[in-house]
Amino acid sequence: MSRKAGTFLVDSLIRSAKHCEFNKSEVECLMKLFDTLVAKSSSHFAGAGFDRIVFRDTLHSAFGMTDDVMLDRVFSTFDKENKGSITVVEWVEGLAVLLRGTLEEKMKYCFRVYDLNGDGYISKEEMFQMLKNSLLIQPADEEPDEGIKDLVEIAVKKMDHDHDGKLSFEDFEKSVRDENLLLEAFGPCLPDIKSSIIFEQKVFREVPI
């Protein structure tokens, strides 16, 4: 990439991620990390982006995310073009939400993660799958599925404001605004504050993660 093209890309990314207040230096650091991750990617995406495996490994080491199903959902949310790889634009814009997003942006992000089939609703089946995957079931639980079904019914009763048996974004938004802890009601998909700070300190000081 030429210096002129690189400068144009940095400026473009700053504009697209202006809500998160990444400055020019920070965007350049994220781009350098992106290049490092692309180099690790052994797939045919190399040069244009990095693959799912590198993405999962990166979020695991950076933010302690270990749930494979959740990591796949986060990958799909980043991969807006649905190409199976993460481009530099998707990388910077995705991290903008994870690290410095507003409540509105994080609500939209979490909703997309939980909406497994992309139909604009979080169904009871989707709630069940996400909760079953994210909750640690004790061996002594003879009927763990029944306990999860009970949690789903509690969530629907609390969050389904229009009483249609599923959650629209409007339902989800109202619930989260009333009670912020419901933002990750169906599984952790955002980095915690401590890991976010450590990640920023390392990347923006160009220390390998």
From TrEMBL:
Task: Name any one Pfam family assigned in the record.
Answer: EF-hand_7
Q: Which domain of life is it from?
A: Eukaryota
Presence of the UniProt keyword NAD in the record = no
Name recorded for this polypeptide: EF-hand calcium binding domain 1
Task: Tell me the Gene3D superfamilies matching this sequence.
Answer: EF-hand
Which keywords fit this entry according to its UniProt record? Calcium, Metal-binding, Repeat
A GO molecular function term, named singly, is: calcium ion binding
**InterPro entries to which the protein is assigned, alphabetical:** EF-hand-dom_pair, EF_Hand_1_Ca_BS, EF_hand_dom, Recoverin
